[in-house]
Write a structure and sequence with these properties.
The complex is a heterodimer. Chain A is α+β, with helices and mostly antiparallel strands. Helices cover 14% and strands 31% of the residues of chain A. Chain A has one domain. Chain A is globular and about 45 Å long. The radius of gyration of chain B is 17 Å and the shape is globular. Chain B starts with a strand and ends with a helix. Classes of the chains: A alpha+beta, B alpha+beta.
């Protein structure tokens, strides 16, 4: 992967971004207006089957939420990235990505034709090419999203813990392919009912 | 369908089964601290598969219990958890990898251990997936029947494995709602602290059932659960 690395992109509400992030660089996701869920997938840039695994990451850190110090693992147990800075405090990786079909289940048939993260994921994957397709869309991270788990086994989507300007920064521990969907969900509080743009920035430390 | 069959799956083994819709699939533990890591795929198109996040968020639960449906990424109920002696089955802690099993229990091989060789859930699941022309790209979050890892409710969402949660004679019954491919492993759960390799086997019973009627508990629990059944039914009209 190239030594040159510069990333500075605004991702509008409901849009996506896909691109490579070299090992050793830092990349940051900034919630420009607050309460915005940023659905994120990571892959080993040289082997897309070696992809982010939410459940392996959760089990190995012994905790459900992601924050500073969390090590993001692949399905094979390899380290993809480490969260090195986090002004939000915690991020979800159990809630998955919204889809048109899951919206029907959750909210009813009238939501079938609304935009969703999984459509963005699959579209961006297909545009990227190199064999990436729906089969490769694994369970994602939801930066800035608040999905509390309770000791009695409850799980709910609640109002965001984020605010304008909050960010999370990660160090790439290997060459990565980064796939982001800036969530268009309108039916629950994950985006404060008003999806807004986010910023992706990256640099060599 | 009339008739049924029962197979005994030893601990540490793997299995895959094609199951038509409206059958019951019952797992009965044959020993202490059993674990059944299960993946489920739509038989007619395995890119449609069990989606644990969709299943949990739609039913607002961090655990699998009756009368939840197990949902695919396409919103269809793959199966319904119709009955269980336990009110908590894990779905958020994945399954064991070979390196972890070797680090914990020591090296093992067929040459040394014959069919008592210690195999990870990953090895077993992949062996079965490959038989169906599936593979690593088709690995997704699995359910761990009989296992409980409880969240403490703290700031980090700390999870603690609960030893002794399940024992011999605990059971869970699923009713398939579409034609599915079920892939499972009976390797020990990776958070089970025991350093003695003695994974419990299970009895797996397949029997005929009927479509869920209007009084079925899954139709009368949550609207989301009921809608996932409707989406499954629509695909057979």
């Amino acid at each position: 992967m190239s030594d040159e690395f510069e990333l500075d992109a605004i991702v509008e509400a409901g849009d996506g971004w896909i691109g490579e992030v070299p090992a050793g660089t830092l990349f940051r996701v900034t919630d420009l207006h607050g309460n915005q869920a940023v659905d994120t997938l990571l892959y080993d840039a040289h082997d897309y089957t070696n992809r982010y695994s939410a459940m392996d990451t959760i089990r190995e850190q012994g905790a459900a939420y992601l924050t500073t110090g969390s090590v993001l693992l692949t399905v094979n147990g390899d380290t993809l990235a480490t969260i090195v800075d986090d002004t939000c405090g915690r991020h979800d990786t159990l809630g998955g990505a919204c889809s048109q079909e899951s919206n029907v289940v959750r909210y009813g048939q009238h939501t079938r034709y609304q935009h969703s993260c999984r459509s963005t994921f699959v579209r961006k994957a297909k545009e990227w090419g190199r064999g990436l397709e729906k089969r490769d869309i694994a369970h994602n991270i939801n930066f800035f999203m608040n999905v509390p788990l309770t000791a009695d086994g409850g799980l709910t989507f609640e109002d965001g813990v984020s605010a304008p300007g909050k960010y999370v920064e990660l160090r790439a521990e290997r060459d990565l392919l980064l796939l982001v969907s800036n969530c268009p969900q309108l039916n629950n509080p994950c985006n404060g009912y008003d999806p807004t743009p986010i910023r992706l920035t990256g640099r060599r430390p | 369908m009339t008739g049924s069959y029962t197979i005994e799956i030893p601990g540490g083994a793997a299995e895959s089964l094609r199951v038509r819709r409206h059958r019951t699939l019952t797992l009965r533990a044959l020993g202490a601290d059993p674990n059944v890591a299960m993946l489920i795929y739509a038989l007619d198109d395995p890119t449609e598969r069990l989606n644990v996040p969709d299943t949990l968020k739609a039913q607002m639960s961090a655990r699998i219990k009756p009368p939840m449906t197990l949902m695919s990424d396409m919103g269809r109920a793959l199966a319904t958890v119709t009955d269980s002696s336990l009110d908590w089955h894990d779905a958020i802690t994945g399954h064991s990898m070979s390196e972890q099993v070797e680090a914990k229990f020591g090296p093992s091989s067929y040459a040394a251990d014959r069919n008592a060789r210690r195999r990870s859930a990953r090895d077993g699941l992949l062996d079965e997936l490959w038989k169906h022309d599936l593979g690593a790209r088709d690995l997704h979050a699995n359910i761990n029947f009989f296992t409980k890892a409880v969240p403490s409710g703290d700031e980090r969402g700390t999870l603690t494995y609960v030893p002794g949660h399940a024992s011999e004679r605990d059971f869970v019954t699923l009713r398939t709602e579409i034609d599915v491919l079920v892939v499972l492993s009976t390797a020990p759960h990776p958070l089970n602290p025991s350093i003695v390799w003695n994974p419990a086997g299970v009895l797996l019973e397949i029997a005929g059932s009927t479509a869920p009627g209007p009084e079925d508990p899954a139709r009368n629990w949550r609207a989301e659960t009921s809608r996932s059944l409707e989406l499954a039914e629509r695909s057979y009209l």
